[in-house]
Design a protein that fits this description.
Two copies of one chain form a homodimer. By secondary structure, chain A is an alpha+beta fold. In chain A, 29% of the residues lie in helices and 38% in strands. Chain A has a single domain, classed as Aminopeptidase (3-Layer(aba) Sandwich), CATH 3.40.630. A seven-stranded mixed β-sheet of chain A has the order 1-2-3-4-5-7-6. Chain A is globular and about 40 Å long. The interface between A and B is large, with 36 and 36 residues.
C-alpha cells in the first residue's frame, strides 16, 4: 500500500470514499447532507495536509493531518481517516494511522489527539488503542447516532 | 451588567479586551501575534454569536457561542469568554457564562463543552466548576505556557 499526498485529480476518488461515510452519519460529526464541494473543501482544506492510500493503483483510503489548536497548542496534531467501504478489514486505516504518526513526528508534532471518536465505533476505538492511543476524555451523549440515539464521544490522545 | 449581541461598532472595544489576552498567550490556544483583523474575524465569525457585557455603558467583557461540532454533534455548544483586565474579580465572566447557558438552552443546545481550558488557569477552572461544569478530559502537556512550560489542558462539560 502506498500513502501519498492527495492531489486535485484525486477529488473524485476521495469523494467516493468520504461521501458514503458522511451520508451514513454514524462516525463523523459532519452534516450528513453536506455537499460534495463542501465535503472536499473540508477534507482537503488549506489548514491541513491530505493523503490518500493506494492499493494496486486504486485509492482505498484517505486521511488529513492538521494542528489541533493554534498558538500554544500547535504542537498537538489531529487527524481524520476514512477507508473505502469495499476495503474495510485490510489494514488500510492502520497503515494510514502509522503513516500519520511518522509524518507528525517528522514535522515536530509532539502528540496526536482525536477530539471526537464516536463510542459505538468499536472497530476504530480498538484500532486506535492498539496503536497506543489512550481514552483521555468522555463526552456524555455528545453524538446523535442515527440508530443508537444519543451516545458518548471519546477524546483519544497519545504522545509521539 | 447588561449582556447584548455584539455589533460591528463594538470592534474597537472587543479588541481592547481580547488583544491583551491573546498577546499574553497564557489562557487561549491562539497565536499570540495574531493580527487585530484576524482576531476579530475569529471572535466575531459567522459560525458563532458574539456578545458583549456592558457595565455603566462600558464594555467589560465579551463571549461567543457556537455549535461545538456539526451534524450529529451540533446539540452541544461551545463558548469562549474574555474579561477586560481592569474588570477582573467583578463577576463579569460568571455573568457572561450564566447568560450563555440560558441562551444555549433557549436555542435548543443540550450541553455545553469547553475544549481547552488551560489547567494553570485556576480562576477559570474554579469558576466553571462552581457553575456546574465537570472535568471530563485531561490533555497531557497539550499547552505551552509562556512561563510554566508544558501544562495540561482540560475538557469541561455540562448538560444544560
Amino acid at each position: 500500500m502506498l500513502i501519498r499526498p492527495a492531489m486535485n485529480a484525486d477529488e473524485k476518488a476521495i469523494w467516493s470514499i468520504i461521501g458514503p461515510t458522511i451520508r451514513a452519519g454514524e462516525t463523523y460529526a459532519l452534516p450528513p447532507d453536506m455537499s460534495e464541494a463542501d465535503a472536499l473543501a473540508y477534507w482537503m482544506g488549506s489548514d491541513r495536509e491530505t493523503f490518500v492510500a493506494e492499493d494496486e493503483g486504486r485509492i482505498v483510503g484517505t486521511y488529513y493531518i492538521r494542528a489541533n489548536q493554534a498558538g500554544g497548542g500547535d504542537h498537538v496534531c489531529n487527524c481524520g481517516y476514512m477507508t473505502d467501504l469495499g476495503a474495510i478489514g485490510r489494514g488500510v486505516a492502520r497503515t494510514m494511522c502509522e503513516h500519520s504518526m511518522a509524518h507528525a513526528r517528522s514535522h515536530g508534532f509532539q502528540s496526536m489527539q482525536f477530539n471526537f471518536v464516536v463510542s459505538t465505533n468499536d472497530r476504530a476505538v480498538r484500532l486506535w488503542q492498539s496503536l497506543g492511543f489512550k481514552i483521555v476524555g468522555r463526552l456524555p451523549h455528545a453524538f446523535r447516532h442515527p440508530t443508537h440515539g444519543l451516545v458518548d464521544a471519546l477524546v483519544m490522545f497519545q504522545p509521539l
